[in-house]
Amino acid sequence: MNQPLAGYAPAPVTARMENHGNHMLKVAMQTGHDLFARVGSMVAYEGFVQYEPNPSAVRQIAKDWLTGEGAPLMKCSGDGLLYLADYGANVVVINLNGEGISVNATNLLAFDAHLTWGVERVKGLAKFAGQGLWNTKISGQGWVALTSRGKPIVVDCGGGEDETYVDPDALVAWSPNLKVKGKRSFRAQSLIGRGSGEAYQMAFSGQGIVVVQPSEDSTDRLRVRG
Q: Is pTM beyond 0.90 here?
């Protein structure tokens, strides 16, 4: 191999899911260990890997999503190496050891098919967003890959009395055992242009983490269900 290109070759497999650089996910596929991944996220694969878009297991759960909301998923199965990406977004790999994670569906790249998952209402926000916001909760023993528009920060809420406040347009994921509530504020700068000047944040408290991306693209965030 050309010496300058050799540095981009994949490293030997050491885990089910691994980063290849900051913007690509490498998955070691094995028969009987299926994967759910975002439709269109496959960029390359080695070996024999098959894809089933919108499988029945996904349709049953995703029926709770509004049209155009959530993450269209495909089932991946087979043997080999699978590479996934999402338009150059940073990839964050999490190995769940019996815990859970609540994920903004648009930040969900892939997860082991045997994990327990579903769409759940985000409690404590109904009065701020009509009937509330919805997220995807994943739990069990296995691997999950998230995306972030830029390098994220992982905030440890610490279990103290102080709350952690996050702009929902920048929220990626959080520990589902955290308490969540909304806080409404008034921002004078929002009066410029079409803004109303009113905004709200999500307040987290308890023992757990919050993953925040350096982006406030409101077209890409938690969806409001009316």
A: no
Contact 150, 213 (CB under 8 A): yes
How many CA within 13 A on the CB side of residue 7? 3
CB of 225 closer than 8 Å to CB of 66: yes
Name every residue whose Cβ is closer than 8 Å to that of residue 212 and which is 6 or more positions away in sequence. 152, 153, 154, 155, 166, 170, 171, 172
Give the pLDDT confidence of 125-142 residue by residue, as tens digits.
655 554 446 789 999 999
- Count of CB atoms within 10 A of residue 168's CB? 21
The closest alpha carbon to 100, from 87, 115, 122, 90, belongs to 115
Instruction: Give 73's strand partners.
Output: 38
> What 3-state class would DSSP assign to 106?
helix
